Amino acid sequence: MDKQRDFVLRTIEERGVKFVRLWFTDVIGTLKSVAIAPAEVEGAFSEGIGFDGSAIEGLTRSYESDLLAHPDPTTFQTLPWRGEIDPTARMFCDLTTPDGQPAVADPRQVLKRTLAKAADAGFTFYTHPEIEFYLLKSSSYGAEGPEPVDSAGYFDNVPGGTAHDFRRRSVRMLEDLGISVEYSHHEGGPGQNEIDLRYADALATADNIMTFRTVIKEVAIEQGVYATFMPKPLSGKPGSGMHTHMSLFEGDTNAFYDEGDQYHLSKTGRQFIAGLLTHANEISAVTNQFVNSYKRLWGGDEAPSFICWGLNNRSALVRLPQAKPNKGQSTRIEYRALDSAANPYLAFALMLAAGLKGIEEGYELPAEAEDNVWSLTDAERRALGYSPLPASLDHALEYMEDSELVAETLGEQVFNYVLLNKRKEWQEYRSQVTPFELKSNLEML
SMART domains, per this entry (predicted)? Predict the structure, then answer.
């Protein structure tokens, strides 16, 4: 760590960095930033930078508000969109109380705690997110709703289109920040794009997702458009998901791979999937944390609505992609409920905790779903045992409230804050009178 700190201090000097932004998130996953002068960085490493935690939603109660932000030198990067005028860098932070204890409401700490539990069982957790988002002409919207930058579709090549330049600039910027991109393409909705980040350990991936969202927003501003990670911004068009591929490794060995199994899926892999299926409803209020998230889950267009798994089945909640021949290390599972607006630290912690619970308790994996689950009738789905995911945020909060797994993984303070914050969101949503109601009822009744 000392070597890494020395590298950071040397780089700041060599590149003439003028500001260093210290980044962390609140419980909902909003990025927070405080800028310090280069002269303060050494002190930040040794003692942390103090701030008032009560000013940040969910991080502390007001009577225990003093917190310290400790920059993680391994996350140091200069910010390419700041250019050469007043070069600016960033580091992610771990938050502690003044006496050095990890801050119980720090989302990064929640994930680190869960990763440590996996490490105790001999596992490293890797994730690979496919992040979807919409590009709109502006953040304002008329009677027809937001206006996308194009009307293209899945994998479309749009000559002279905004999206090409946008993706090229974004990918280059991400690579400059040390974030490897695997694919980028136009998605199914008008103005919808997808950029997939390369596999990395879950903590690095969560940090990368927070950086990714900032990069996308910055490039959009630069190009005169607006980017949104809202799960379902356009009625009748696909929502924006963040399908996440996951695997556990024991050292250099993929714990999900079994050469002798017909799907090359090990017992550990099966139990992990069973854990995800068993606890899917309980973790929904975090993996899908907004009222709008459930418009995506229940709006069709490849969003999963029912709890089942399948081999290459895109209508299932958990998909087992077919590994390439002789590439056992690539065996992985894909969780398809997560949306692009989730707090990645809390979502990854809960998905990992659910999978580990399946391994610890030896959960049995039910039979795979071979059919298109959306095209079955309710009676057929019931007969096959495919339960629905929560239909609303309110429904998801009921499951979460009764979940020992979620309470234990998040810790009391984060657990209570998420419930409190999300109940408030649901109350505000429920109390409004919508254009739909006025259109349907005002004249008729």
Answer: Gln-synt_C (SM01230)
Per-residue confidence (pLDDT) for residue 230, from 0 to 100: 96
| Co-location of 135 and 26 in the same domain | no
The reply to whether 247 sits in an annotated binding site is: yes
The answer on whether 194 is annotated among ligand-binding residues is: yes
- Number of other residues whose CB lies within 10 A of the CB of residue 306: 19
pLDDT (tens digit per residue) in 406-428: 999 999 989 999 999 999 999 99
Q: How many domains does the chain have?
A: 2
Domain CATH code at residue 91: 3.10.20.70
Domain boundary among 73, 101, 129: 101
What's the Cα-to-Cα distance from 135 to each of 53, 235, 251, rounded to whole Å? Answer: 34, 15, 40
Counted residue by residue, the chain has a size of 445
5 in a labelled binding site? no
> Binding site annotation covers 336?
yes
Tens-digit pLDDT profile for residues 207-239: 999 999 999 999 999 999 999 999 999 999 999
Q: Are residues 95 and 119 both part of a single domain?
A: no
CA 283 to chain CA mean position, Å: 13
* Residue 398 to residues 234, 295, 345, 392, Cα–Cα distance (Å): 27, 18, 22, 10
Whether 132 has a binding-site annotation, put simply, is yes
Q: Residue 334 annotated as binding? A: yes
pLDDT of residue 325: 61
Q: What is the pLDDT of residue 375?
A: 87
Residues of the chain short of pLDDT 50, as ranges, are none
On whether 213 is known to bind a ligand per the annotation, the reply is: no
User: Within this chain, do residues 149 and 80 fall inside the same structural domain, yes or no?
Assistant: no
- On whether 250 is known to bind a ligand per the annotation, the reply is no
Ligand-binding annotation for 182, yes or no, is: yes
Q: Is 302 annotated as a binding residue?
A: yes
Count the alpha carbons within 13 Å of 91 in the hemisphere toward its beta carbon.
Answer: 26
Say if strands 66-71 and 49-52 run parallel, antiparallel, or are unpaired. Answer: antiparallel
Query: How far is 280 from 319, CA to CA, in rounded Å?
Result: 14
Residue 107 placed within a domain = no
The answer to the question of whether 47 is labelled as a binding residue is no
pLDDT at residue 146, rounded to an integer: 87
Domain that holds residue 195: 112-439
